[in-house]
TrEMBL record:
This is Membrane protein. CDD domains: S2P-M50_like_1. It is found in: Cell membrane. The keyword Protease applies. GO terms for molecular function: metal ion binding; metallopeptidase activity. Belongs to the peptidase M50B family. It comes from the Bacteria. It is a multi-pass membrane protein. It comes from Streptomyces filamentosus NRRL 15998. The keyword Membrane applies.
Amino acid sequence: MTTAATRGDRRISPVFLGIAAVTAVAGWAVWTGFADATGFAVFLFVTGAWIVSLCLHEYAHARTALHSGDLSVGAKGYLTLNPLKYTHALLSIVLPVLFVIMGGIGLPGGAVYIERGRIHGRWKHSLISAAGPLTNVAFAFLCTAPFWLDALDGVPRAFQYALAFLAMLQVTAAILNSLPIPGLDGYGVIEPWLSYRIRRQVEPIAPFGLIAVFALLWIPEVNIVFFDAIHALLRGLGVEEFQRYCGYDLYRFWRGLFDEQDPGCAVG
């Protein structure tokens, strides 16, 4: 029988600490202008912070499951924040980072494997699924705090732009992952309240939910409506569209090797 997580099972992984350290150093380089290549520093900072948020997203699922009755999550390494310990590192970490690079979309990743049979009570099951997106919501509020608190005095423009782009990733991840589509956390929230017959019918298509979301976002009309909603929400949090755009422009530092980056986003 699986027992409670040991201290070793909860020890923060050196892999996660390394990622967090790179993120912190890159953030310092963006803030101080220490790096000659500001775009590369922004890339490291945003990518590192995005991976940290993905790890915390999965950790939130696991931690909530632990307190709800699934004591197996510790032995699986889910409480160490190690991205390599999650059920599918490709879906959980690599693909979300690739989607950020390709289109500036905070696509939700894979998941931890929760032994649902150990957990009793529909509310507990719903809370476990909701814990991940709520982590992204918390990150979004943290990233946008300087904007809606009107506390940008003294904050370098490059750092403002990086935070604005990172906030957009967190908002898109929170919204996409909250959709009631099989395979996403939003469906996990409502699944315990559905009939057994419906759950059995939906189960075979659950692995394709993320692919379906990605395909829908390629439809121009859907894409426009989705990003209009994202922009409206971020404007409500004090983040202007040009700040998010310039953050993404700086993030794609490699464009400067082939094309001229937008001069309106110059920070030097």
